[in-house]
Specification:
With about 60 residues, the chain is mainly alpha-helical. Helix content is about 80%, strand content about 0%. This is 50S ribosomal protein L7/L12.
Length: about 60
Amino acid sequence: MSAAATRGSKIDAIRSLRVARGADLKGAKEIVEEYLERSAQVKSRMATASKGGAGSGI
């Protein structure tokens, strides 16, 4: 999850977590959001990536 999150893609982080842990969508989303709240650096990268639009985290 952290690799996807560090690239700036919240959706990719949720997808990765669902695949890795077999989590449902709601549970995976909550875990990713909690992770982002705890990690200011990752949260900052996600905010920057979301401003650039789809694909800007690559």
